[in-house]
Amino acid sequence: MQSVNPRDDFDMVIIGGGIIGLASAYYATFRGLRTLIIDQYGIHNDVNSSKGIERMFRLMQDNESEAHLAETSLALWMELQLATGKQLLAMDDLIFFGHRDAPMTTEGNVQQIKKTMDRMGMPYEYLDSPDAIHRRFPVFNRAALADDYVGLVQAASASINVQGAAKAFFYAAKQTGHLHVLDKHAVIGIDFHRNPLTSHRYTLHIQGEDKAISVHGKYLIACPGVWADSVLTPLGLQQTRNWKIWQMNYAYWPLKKHRPRIPVWFEFGNIDASDNGTFYGFPPLNFSPEMQNMVKMSADYTYDIFDAPSAIRPGVNDRLMEELSQHLGHLLDAEIIDATNFERVGTCLYSMSPDGKLVIGRIPTEPCSQSFYPGASMCIMESGRAFKYAPLFGRVLVELALEGKSRYQSDLEIFSPIRKGLFETPNQSRS
Ligand SMILES: Cc1cc2nc3c(=O)[nH]c(=O)nc-3n(C[C@H](O)[C@H](O)[C@H](O)COP(=O)(O)OP(=O)(O)OC[C@H]3O[C@@H](n4cnc5c(N)ncnc54)[C@H](O)[C@@H]3O)c2cc1C
Question: Locate the FAD dependent oxidoreductase domain: which residues (predicted)?
């Protein structure tokens, strides 16, 4: 790896070594850009939102834009898989099931998703009763499925190999010879210079473990996860108080039977518009040797919500784990798992936008402004759902920084950084 010298000049500087930063580095270096990626905890750290073993890939969405974006992303995942020769996706059936008329959650609801699939002519299988769900996947106890439960099954879904994907992007970028890395360095300041005679330039002030340095970049991509304010504040923006950090809990259950038929699944068990009662899980996967005969399951709601990274109290929530194991003991066949016997409990952070939609685009110079920093783009407030889009978003962020627009713009409108309620000017309402 190339070393980084103080006052070095780069074509592209990427803040954040999570999956979106790594994907951006892949597409930037592929274009021949001298690229620096910086992470305060190190690339591949165990603190950010990209940690763990698996994520869900799905075409099933509650709106057409996200379904289109997922289709494109699937093609790019396949391309990366072929280019690197690594298994990044384990394709499988995904079942969405739950109350026929469950209110919308941040993940949608069964009826809304069905409508979107119908409008788009996307193939799926509809299971119109709890009996139909149980017949299709006997792993789900019939007694645990309410009488108004219905289901959607889609075959072009997958579990994403999290560590495999991070390594694939990183090593492919490294192989170009254009990648530079600053591990365990935090960006603490950004100066923007607009010079009408030459061109714009960003100076980043960076704190390492024992010394501070500054580097320069013509283009800037920010994908800082829950630490977004550390990058945005120097640029005159701050997330509003309606932005939140959700600390999510998950665990792995050893299987009593060897590799039973379990699909990727998501249950809309909520009865109101909160996410309480939503659960999901994965089949046994071979992404990690010690997890081969285990299944991961999680609640898609939390009792631990924070206003800022400094407020986070890491730790597993006993009440949530109790609810999760009770629910699974009811839902899954007792011959398959012992619901009380879970291992490897973990937490991971969602950065939740005020409206539950993530944010990707150019960086506005003020909240809701149509004026943007030149040569800069960001992906933040990913609201627990950006992993599936990683290759597409990496490509989009590079396009936006270099060209100021993306060929996927119309579908990306729903994630616009200039929609209302996302940002305020620093300390506007905090003093
Ligand atoms: C439990 C859980 C389950 C999920 N399930 C799914 C799923 O099934 N499907 C799906 O599509 N998505 C899912 N997601 C969401 C997905 O994992 C995230 O959207 C994605 O990983 C976010 O990646 P990122 O690169 O934007 O952010 P992160 O991974 O958080 O990376 C941001 C990085 O920026 C660095 N950074 C921040 N500020 C600075 C600074 N000032 N200087 C230097 N470095 C800085 C941080 O150290 C961090 O490493 C899930 C998330 C969680 C937590």
Answer: 11-400
